[in-house]
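lol ok so funny story. i was supposed to be doing the assay writeup but got distracted and ended up predicting the structure for this chain instead. priorities right. anyway since i did it might as well share w the group, maybe its usefull for someone
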Amino acid sequence: MSKNIKLQTARCVISDYVAAVVAWIIFFFIRKSFEIYDFNNLYINIITDRNFWLGLIIIPLFWLLLYVLIGTYRKIFHKSRLAELGQTAIISVIGCIFLFFVIILDDNVANYKGYYKYFFVLLFSHFFITYICRLIISTSTIRKIEKKIIGFNTVIVGSNGHALAVYNELNAKSNHSGNLFVGFVNAVQYDDYKLEQFLPRLGNYTELSEIIDKYNIEEVVVAIERSELKMAESMISILDKKDVSIKIHPVMQDILFGAVKASGIFNVPMIEINPELLPIWQKVLKRIFDVIASFLVLILASPIYLFTAVGVRCSSKGPIFYGQERIGKNGKPFKMYKFRSMYVNAEDAGPQLSSKGDGRITPFGHFIRKYRLDELPQFYTVLRGYMSIVGPRPEREYYINKITEKAPYYRLLLKIQPGITSWGQVKYGYAENVDQMIERLPYDLLYIQNMSIAMDFKILIFTVKIVFQGRGV
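and the output, tada:
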């Protein structure tokens, strides 16, 4: 399937590139034809125009970069022709506005009426050619899926009446859904499984991670019984760590309301858990903001860094910085640094969380924790790419294991980069024990379900307010 994905992606990229080239040629010819009426002079004028050849090189590359940023080439086989129509229209408008105003900065146009005329020529030619090419590819792909030329390795989670009904419904469609069922996994142990007469049993749902890797699973259809819903939390936490499409039959909608969006598998109603928490362009924008903001903080706040470093050195014996291993995105460990706010060897007795009146905190440590100055070195960690400015606070593996014993869905937070500040920090504050960590967890889950650049700025505004009010502890 990976070979098919590469070929399909190449087709789409080449199609978009050719469409951008053709649209630019049409735009340039039509535009010059308004000024030069003789075809021979028009042709010579165009092929000798430096801007024509420059645009022919740069502009198609600009469009491809824009498509990559918005995630056009992700989920290449799961494209809706209607949704693609809207997406192509919106991105064409945005891209043409940018290109148009860049082009005319160094261009002479007789009057402003000409600006609008040329803009719509560029917009309609680019949109029409691009979408027609995409429509041809999408239609061809859908026909290949319906004829079972292309398919997606799929496993069903569920084993009895509900799973059997979903399996039969998908297979009963005259147009194939694209799901190539490899087998099923059971949620609860039974003496016999109704689905076993059609599909092989691959194991228990707790083995899903290994099964997905072994059989190259691309889609998981969850169709468990209502009596099995108690396994839903741990099941989703297992699946959410894998790069697979998760489709759930509506019987589970009541427990996942707000965390999913309605979807369908070729006319079979399903609920889809969207694995992409942020569009690609927002991911890029978030990272750009992290880098620029962290760099500015490191430079502009250098006097505060110096003041804090001197204060730590003078307040107690020991190093200025304190490094501790934390768990980041996808469970990868990294070293997080802070200004030391505790006495040396504060954790000789083992991992401990700080609390009010904690005797391990130095007098100066109380001050810098109150205004969160101890967190300043983490902007360097953000620059290195291990953290973001906004995201769930990273924890030590020791406490993650403690938390997941009671709340296995905590591991959903490991889908994204941890942050210096978070919605949980803003609304709940620091946790002094595992139970409080679990109480804070819903705020961070709410964040990852509603991630956006706007949400990040809201959290930053609240954080700045907390810092200036000295409510850091």
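The longest helix spans residues 112-146. Confidence is low (pLDDT under 50) at residues 252-262.
back to the writeup now i swear
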